[in-house]
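help with this:

***
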Amino acid sequence: MSVLRQELKSFSHACEVLLSDYSKRPLDEEERQLIVYYVHELNEKLNHQPSNSARTNAPTLAKKCGETRMRMHTKQLQLEHGVLDAVIIGEFELSAAQSQFVELLDEAVGRGATKLLIDGREITGKLRAFERFLYGEFAAWATLDVMKQHQMRLRFAYLIHEPVRDPERFGETVAANRGMIVKTFEDKVEAVQWLHGAG
């Protein structure tokens, strides 16, 4: 079964629960937005229209989920032993994180790096599930586009701490389900070992 069909089956089951009389509690605003997003994406796929409108509007949707925050920025960027190591600091904000991810992809292509270590231990903020979903999906599609265009294979390790790091790895799962080779870590040595294929 393809990834899309697995997700569709899970989504269909969730809709059945939602429409039944035994739903335990009303949906909150974030959950309603996620359902609207999924419905839009499914509609695009069913109509065979590969539109990026939902992804393009992700920053706009994210702003509805929370207040504007201090912009993140890259504190340090270096290529060491074949790994592009990017140290990111500041308070998490979805549109800034997405723009920054694209910049890191450009840097990887320009430097010929296929392994990226995104060190976000100094990133602050509490991410909503919807933001994790949108970032994970955006990162995956952006990565797949670059890999296809440049015929290269990219591998990502995120070094982050809670609460930015989700113990349940929701964002990581979203990205991995879409074909991105990615894993989150608390320890830098483990992250680098995994990037080199030792983990």
